[in-house]
Amino acid sequence: MDTIFAQASAPGRAGVAVIRISGPQAFAIAQEISGKRPEGRESVLRNLRGTGGEVIDQALLLSFPGPNSFTGEDVVEFQLHGSIAVVRAMLSLLSTFPETRMAEAGEFTRRALENEKLDLAQVEGLADLIEAETEAQRKQALRVLSGHLGARVEDWRKDLIRAAALLEATIDFADEEVPVDVTPEVEALLSKVGKELQAEAEGTYVAERVRNGFEVAIIGAPNAGKSTLLNALAGRDAAITSEIAGTTRDVIEVRMDLDGLPVTLLDTAGLRESEDKVEAIGIERAIERAEAADLRVFLAAPGEALVLTPEEEDIVLQPKADLVGIEENGISGKTGQGVSELIQRIQSTLSERSSNIGLATHERHRVALQQAVSCLAEVNVILTRGPDFYDLAAADLRFGIRTLETLVGRIDVENLLDEIFTSFCVGK
């Protein structure tokens, strides 16, 4: 296996730059460059020298002997001064060593997966942690990276293996009298695991929203003050405001951090009948995005007919409250009246939804969980047909177990790996 290296810190000028080496030659290369072979887990200050003996930089050298390292291999990190010239010189020097090459995107993490330092769900959690922008995203990604989902999968797997073993024992002794009817225990195990799998699958919808962001659409008639309200919520002129109705033609998006939750506010075209083809396209898009949004804020006067029907948690406010003298349930993006209260209502609603968050965070997770639930439902149906069909039930149960194993990357995930690791930076 090649020894790989890459800059693990962000490119460009900085106070410190980190270059990481992993593989069988890592310690030998460190010895060649620093003049001394690393001994165990140590951190020492060394002069790093090139092939001609010239000093490239003075750096902190950290060593992590395998298998007790991130990748499971011998790993060395150099903390250099963050000069572009220093980093370039070090990377050029490392490329001269035999059987040593620049790492591909995500290759350090891929080796951690191959050496069983992480499971596939943890790899996805690490990618999410690197991409996290808000506190809720950070906490969610850290839970997955910590291995909580893998631990749950292992618990479910043990229960299902127990159920399959009971069924197969009955099959093995079909010609003899089995002293205990295993059906009640099998049904209890299937019921327990099935309910937990279903709850986890349902929680992925919220988890995906925390990972990708909630969408909140501002809806109303033309010239209802939607763009002014968006600007007030964003704290900047994100949308053009005008006295002319129909100014907003396309959906304008503003991403915000509301109490740690990622939220994208959508300013939509005013909803009305229009013969203007461009405006009509904008209205059609506005309706589509509003229907797909997680929450809608309607700006409408009392008794005003609404193109869309508000759902239970949607918010309906009377716009331009400063002009009509409305205090209760009124809002004005121009004066700020009711804006703070609206932000609090959005935060409260989305935070309540986030309380149902699951450990599974990706669509791939949800598909695997739902497939496992379907398998268990089929097993329950087969069990009602009697012991003569227990071999079919056991086969379906084994398939359900394999489905859960794909969730954490134990089997049949080679086709997913390239897609997952391309999202990583080279030094990770």
Descriptive account of the structure:
- This protein has 428 residues and is of the alpha/beta class.
- The protein is 46% helix and 16% strand.
- It is built from 14 helices and 11 strands.
- The strands form 2 sheets. It has a 6-stranded mixed sheet with strand order 3-4-5-2-1-6. The chain has a 5-stranded mixed sheet with strand order 8-9-7-10-11, sandwiched between helices.
- The longest helix is centred in the middle third of the chain and has 30 residues, at 183-212.
- It starts with a strand and ends in a 7-residue tail after the last helix.
- 39% of the residues are buried.
- Residues 239-249 have low confidence and may be disordered.
Q: Please give the CATH architecture of the largest domain.
A: 3-Layer(aba) Sandwich
Mean pLDDT: 82
Please compute the radius of gyration using only Cα atoms: 29 Å
CATH level-3 fold name of the largest domain: Rossmann fold
Per DSSP E runs of 2 or more residues, the count of β-strands stands at: 11
GO molecular function: GTP binding; GTPase activity; metal ion binding
Family: Belongs to the TRAFAC class TrmE-Era-EngA-EngB-Septin-like GTPase superfamily. TrmE GTPase family.
Enzyme class: hydrolase
GO biological process, one term: tRNA wobble uridine modification
